[in-house]
Amino acid sequence: MSADPLLRPARPEDFPPLARELAALPLFQRYGSTPEQFESSWGKALAAGEGLWVAERGGVPEGLCWFLQRGAFGRGAYLRTLALAPRAQGGGVGKALLDVYERETASAPGGWFLLVSDFNGGAQRFYARHGYHQVGRLDGFVVPDVAELLFWKPRLR
């Protein structure tokens, strides 16, 4: 892989190409996600001032993280989405975006939270390697046949 990606706040022009790539991933196919849904959700998140960052290489976005400062129980930061285009997987881009999430929400007293699909073993292993551990399970939370696993990384005092 070439040079490290540029990490920066997302811009509306990032949405169309990234939405097309991410909506095609098996993970998002399972949820019935469309590029239009992604673009709409990200546009609303940007307008609301939520955390929305991209990783880009050569001017092309290849990954995104979307987070809330106090989206978990009013105390913890919540990572809504961390997703990469296939070409960016396995090259450290996910870790770089996870670092952005943790850095940008470092003041959250309750630590860091996220949900992972029960069928997404790769993501579960990724988050476990970075200090997150499963603390709950929500059967049918988003779609009936999938359990969302609640992961938490406590904030070190």
Number of separate strands: 7
- Enumerate how many helices there are, as a single number: 5
CATH class: Alpha Beta
Measured between the Cα atoms of the first and last residue, the distance is 36 Å
Structural class: alpha+beta
- Under CATH, the homologous superfamily reads Gcn5-related N-acetyltransferase (GNAT)
Order of helices and strands: EHHHEEEHEHEE
Gyration radius, in Å:
15 Å
The helix content, as a percent range, equals: 25-40%
Pick out the low-confidence regions: none
The spatial strand order of the largest sheet comes to 1-2-3-4-5-7-6
Q: Write down the overall geometry.
A: globular
Strand count, sense and closure of the main sheet?
7 strands, mixed
What fraction of residues sit in β-strands?
Answer: 25-35%
Mean pLDDT: 94
CATH fold naming: Aminopeptidase
* Name given to the CATH architecture: 3-Layer(aba) Sandwich
As for the number of domains, it is: 1
